[in-house]
Design brief:
Helix content: 25-40%
CATH topology: Rossmann fold
CATH class: Alpha Beta
Order of helices and strands: HEEEHEHEHEHHHHHEHEH
Strand order of the largest sheet: 1-2-4-3-5-6-7-8
Number of helices: 11
Radius of gyration: 19 Å
Structural class: alpha/beta
C-alpha cells in the first residue's frame, strides 16, 4: 500500500507510515542491502519460526571510538505496511541523507530494516499464510535488536527514529533497551494502548477481510476482494489530510476518479493476510506504564492534522511529563503538513532533529 500512500503525497499512512502500500522502489546512491536469518525465533504468542528473515538496507559506514563502541549508527523504523525503502524517497532522503544533510551517510551509518511481516522480511504471504506466527511490536523490536547486535555487530545507536508504527517501536526500544541509544525521535504516534477510534478503524479493517467468505480462514485461493475493498476505503479515511485531498481533488469528478484509481491499484497489490497481521500487531502495545524508565532524550513530534493521533485527545501533553528528558512538539496545521504522513516530509520537522542531535552530541575526544 505504499503505492497508495505515496500517491497521497505520503499522507495516507496507517498507524502507519508511508508504507501501507507498495509504492515504486526509491533509489539512493551508496545503499547496500542484505538479509539476516534468525534461527528458531520465539514469538510472545508461544509460536516459533525456524528461519526468520530480516531484510535491511544500509548507507554509510560504522565508526568506533577507542573503546570499540559504535558512535554513528542511526536506526530508522518504518510504519505499518511500509519498508525501509520508503525512506529513500526525495521528501525524506533528499532532505536528510543529502551531502551536508543532518543524517549525511558520510557521517552516519544508517540502518533501514524491513520489520517482521513487511517488505522483503518474512511475512504470511511467503507461504505460511494464516499459519504464520502472530507477531506483535515486542517481537518486532526483539528481532531488530538481534539483527543489529548479532547480524550487523552494532553495539550502540546514536539515534533511533521511527514514523507511525516505527514511532511506537521507538518507545518500545527506549523501554526495552534503555542504554542502547543516545537519542530518540518518535514521529506521529502516541505511547498508550491503541483504543478509541484508533482501535475501531483498525478492527474494521480486520473484520472487513475476515467477514469476506473468500478469505476462507486465511487459506484463500483468490483474494477476498470485497473485504480488501472495504479495508482500502478505511485506510483512505484513516490516513487522510483534508487540505491536501481538497487541493488534489477539487471537484466531485476528480475525487471519484482518484478514489477509483487508488482502490484499484491497491487491490492489485495488497495481500489480505499480510494486512491483517500488520494491523493486528498493535493489539497489545502500551508503553505508558514504563515511560519513566526511558533514559535517552526524546524529541517527539506529531502534527495537528493527524487523523490517527488527533491532538484534541490531549494524550501527548500528559504522557510526555513522565519522560525525564522528553519534549513533545505539535506541528500546527499548514499548507506544509500532510496529515499523518507529515512524518515523512522531513523539511517540516528537520529543525527539531537538528536540535536533538546538537543537544545529544557526545563530548569531543580528549
Amino acid at each position: 500500500m505504499v503505492r497508495f500512500l505515496s500517491r497521497l503525497a505520503g499522507v495516507l499512512l496507517l498507524i502507519l507510515s508511508p508504507g501501507l502500500a507498495a509504492a515504486q522502489d526509491a533509489t539512493f546512491p551508496g545503499t547496500q542491502e542484505g538479509d539476516y536469518i534468525i534461527h528458531n525465533f520465539p514469538f510472545r504468542s508461544g509460536e516459533a519460526l525456524a528461519d526468520l528473515r530480516l531484510h535491511y538496507t544500509t548507507l554509510g559506514k560504522p565508526q568506533h571510538d577507542r573503546h570499540g563502541r559504535i558512535t554513528n549508527a542511526v536506526l530508522i523504523l518504518h510504519g505499518t505496511g511500509g519498508d525501509g525503502h520508503q525512506f529513500l524517497r526525495p521528501q525524506f532522503a533528499g532532505v536528510l541523507f543529502a551531502p551536508g544533510g543532518l543524517l549525511d551517510p558520510a557521517k552516519y551509518f544508517i540502518i533501514l530494516r524491513d520489520g517482521i511481516g513487511h517488505g522483503k522480511s518474512s511475512k504470511p504471504s511467503d507461504g505460511l499464510h494464516a499459519n504464520f506466527p502472530h507477531y506483535d511490536y515486542n517481537d518486532m523490536v526483539a528481532a531488530d535488536y538481534e539483527l543489529l547486535t548479532k547480524g550487523l555487530k552494532i553495539n550502540h545507536l546514536r539515534l533511533v527514529m521511527g514514523t507511525s508504527m516505527g514511532c511506537m517501536h521507538s518507545f518500545v526500544w527506549a523501554e526495552t533497551y534503555p542504554d542502547f541509544m543516545d537519542a530518540l525521535m518518535p514521529l506521529a504516534c502516541l505511547p498508550v494502548q491503541i483504543a478509541g477510534r484508533n482501535r475501531m478503524w483498525r478492527k474494521m479493517v480486520i473484520d472487513a477481510i475476515e467477514d469476506d467468505p473468500a478469505w476462507n480462514g486465511g487459506d484463500y485461493t483468490t483474494p477476498p476482494l470485497a473485504g480488501l475493498r472495504t479495508a482500502s476505503d478505511l485506510l483512505v479515511i484513516a490516513g487522510s489530510a483534508p487540505l491536501v485531498m481538497q487541493k488534489n481533488s477539487p471537484t466531485r469528478d476528480a475525487a471519484d476518479a482518484y478514489l477509483d484509481e487508488t482502490i484499484n491499484k491497491d487491490l492489485a497489490s495488497m495481500d489480505a493476510n499480510d494486512l491483517i497481521y500488520q494491523v493486528d500487531a498493535s493489539r497489545n502495545y502500551d508503553p505508558s506504564i514504563l515511560l519513566a524508565t526511558i533514559k535517552a532524550p526524546v524529541m517527539w513530534v506529531n502534527s495537528a492534522d493527524d487523523f490517527i493521533n488527533p491532538p484534541e485527545l490531549g494524550i501527548a501533553e500528559k504522557q510526555v511529563t513522565q519522560i525525564k528528558n522528553g519534549r513533545f512538539i505539535l506541528i500546527p496545521l499548514s499548507d506544509q503538513t500532510h496529515g499523518h504522513g507529515t512524518h515523512t516530509w522531513a523539511a517540516v520537522w528537520k529543525d527539531y532533529l537538528a536540535e536533538l542531535l546538537r543537544e545529544t552530541e557526545p563530548p569531543p575526544k580528549k
